[in-house]
Automatic annotation (TrEMBL):
<keyword id="KW-0808">Transferase</keyword>
<feature type="domain" description="Aminotransferase class I/classII large">
    <location>
        <begin position="11"/>
        <end position="358"/>
    </location>
</feature>
<dbReference type="GO" id="GO:0008483">
    <property type="term" value="F:transaminase activity"/>
</dbReference>
<dbReference type="InterPro" id="IPR015422">
    <property type="entry name" value="PyrdxlP-dep_Trfase_small"/>
</dbReference>
<dbReference type="Pfam" id="PF00155">
    <property type="entry name" value="Aminotran_1_2"/>
</dbReference>
<keyword id="KW-0032">Aminotransferase</keyword>
<dbReference type="InterPro" id="IPR051326">
    <property type="entry name" value="Kynurenine-oxoglutarate_AT"/>
</dbReference>
<dbReference type="InterPro" id="IPR015421">
    <property type="entry name" value="PyrdxlP-dep_Trfase_major"/>
</dbReference>
<dbReference type="InterPro" id="IPR015424">
    <property type="entry name" value="PyrdxlP-dep_Trfase"/>
</dbReference>
<protein>
    <submittedName>
        <fullName>Aminotransferase</fullName>
    </submittedName>
</protein>
<keyword id="KW-0663">Pyridoxal phosphate</keyword>
<dbReference type="InterPro" id="IPR004839">
    <property type="entry name" value="Aminotransferase_I/II_large"/>
</dbReference>
Length: 363
C-alpha cells in the first residue's frame, strides 16, 4: 500500500510510521556519543546504561523489578526480538496460537521454524477473546501463545480479566508466552496498560517485547528490547548472539540518557490521543464509521455505507481514486474475513491529517 501511495501521490496513512521530526535533543545525544567514540560493537546483550534505564522504567511504571544483567536484552527492533524468541522455542511440528487479526510477521516467523499457526479469530467491533476457544485450541503440541497488547490492528487493549483468564488456562501446562507490547505507552482515555510483567505466574514463562521505534518516533533506527526471566533470557541470547550479535552502540547510549526524562513516555498518550481525536472528529463528518481505538497509533474505519467492495479492492480504490492509502484489515487474517474495515495510521503531522480528512470526507 505504501508503494501504491507513492505511485499515485496519495496521502500515506497505511504503513505505521510517523512523519514528524524526532526530538532534537535525542538527535543531539546520538551526535554526542558518536563524537565521544561510542562507535564500535556494543556488548551482545546491550549497553548496560540502557538496560539499567529500562529496568528503572519498568520499576517506575509497573512497580516490577527486572534485573538489567540477566533479564534485559537489546535487539535490532521489535520484529527481530519476536523472531528470535520464536526461534528459541519453536521446533518442527510445534503449534503456536495467535490472535487474529495479527501483526503480519507472526505467521511467517513461526512457519520458518517448522511450526504450525493455530489462529483464534477476533471480530469487530470489540475483538473480544472467546476464552473457551483458546482453551480448546491448546493441545499437546502447543508450544507458544503470542499476545499483542495493545493490538495492531485491532487497536484494543487487554484487561486484567483477560490476563487472569489466560493465567488460569495456562496454570496446568508448559506453554510459553510471547507478549508483544510495542504500543505499551500509547493507550487512551485514561486507561492503563496491563503488562504481562504484572502477572508473576505468566511472567515466569514469558518474553516481553518492546520498541523504541514506537516509543521515540524512530522506526528507522530499528531498536527494541526483550524482558524475560534469566533462563529464558539465556536461551534467547544463544540465538540472538549468532543472529544479530549486537545493536547500534551510539543510539543505545543516547536513548539511555534520554530516558532519564520520563516525560518522553509519560506524555506520549496525550500526544497521540490528540491526533486520534482529530481524525475521529473528521471521520464523523464523513460516510465512514469509526471503531473506537483504545491504543496503538491506528484507527479502524468502516465503509459499509460507501461500498460493497471487498476490503483489498476498496483500499486500492481509495488510494488510486481518492488519494488516501490505508490497509485492509482482512490482510491480517490467515483465512478470508471481510468486515468492510480499513486501518488508518494517525501518527502523522497536522497538515497530513488535515489533508487526509479533507479527502476522506469527499468519499
Amino acid at each position: 500500500m505504501s508503494a501504491l501511495a507513492t505511485q499515485h501521490g496519495a496521502v500515506n496513512l497505511s504503513q505505521g510510521f510517523p512523519n514528524y521530526p524526532v526530538s532534537a535533543a535525542l538527535i543531539a545525544l546520538v551526535d554526542k556519543y558518536m563524537e565521544k567514540g561510542w562507535n564500535q560493537y556494543a556488548p551482545m546483550p546491550g549497553c548496560m546504561p540502557l538496560r539499567e534505564q529500562i529496568a528503572q522504567k519498568v520499576s517506575d511504571v509497573y512497580a516490577v523489578a527486572v534485573h538489567p544483567e540477566s533479564e534485559v536484552t537489546i535487539t535490532a527492533g521489535a520484529t527481530q526480538a519476536l523472531f528470535t524468541a520464536m526461534a528459541t522455542v519453536v521446533q518442527p511440528g510445534d503449534e503456536v496460537i495467535i490472535f487474529e487479526p495479527a501483526y503480519d510477521s507472526y505467521r511467517p516467523s513461526v512457519e520458518v521454524f517448522g511450526g504450525k499457526v493455530v489462529p483464534v479469530r477476533l471480530l469487530a467491533p470489540d475483538f473480544a477473546v472467546d476464552w473457551q476457544e483458546v482453551r480448546a485450541a491448546i493441545t499437546k503440541k502447543t508450544k507458544l501463545i503470542i499476545v499483542n497488547n495493545p493490538g495492531n490492528p485491532s487497536t484494543k487493549i487487554w484487561t486484567d480479566s483477560d490476563w487472569k483468564q489466560l493465567q488460569q488456562i495456562l496454570q496446568d501446562n508448559a506453554v510459553f508466552l510471547l507478549s508483544d507490547e510495542v504500543y505499551e505507552h500509547i493507550v487512551f482515555d485514561g486507561q492503563k496498560h496491563k503488562s504481562v510483567l504484572s502477572y508473576p505466574a505468566l511472567r515466569e514463562r514469558s518474553w516481553v517485547v518492546a520498541s523504541f521505534g514506537k516509543l521515540l518516533h524512530t522506526t528507522g533506527w530499528k531498536l527494541g528490547y526483550v524482558i524475560a526471566p534469566p533462563l529464558l533470557t539465556q536461551e534467547f541470547r544463544k540465538v540472538h548472539q549468532f543472529n544479530v550479535f549486537s545493536v547500534n552502540t551510539p543510539m543505545q547510549m543516547a536513548i539511555a540518557e534520554y530516558l532519564k526524562d520520563s516525560s518522553c513516555y509519560l506524555d506520549l498518550p496525550a500526544f497521540m490521543q490528540e491526533k486520534r481525536d482529530f481524525l475521529v472528529k473528521g471521520l464523523l463528518r464523513s460516510r465512514f464509521s469509526v471503531v473506537p481505538s483504545e491504543g496503538t497509533y491506528f484507527l479502524l474505519a468502516g465503509y459499509q455505507q460507501i461500498s460493497g467492495q471487498p476490503e483489498r479492492e476498496f483500499a486500492q480504490d481509495l488510494t488510486i481514486n481518492h488519494g488516501v492509502a490505508t490497509v485492509p484489515v482482512a490482510a491480517f487474517y490467515s483465512t478470508p474475513c471481510e468486515q468492510k474495515l480499513v486501518r488508518i495510521c494517525f501518527a502523522k503531522d497536522g497538515d497530513t491529517l488535515s489533508r487526509a480528512v479533507e479527502l476522506l470526507q469527499k468519499v
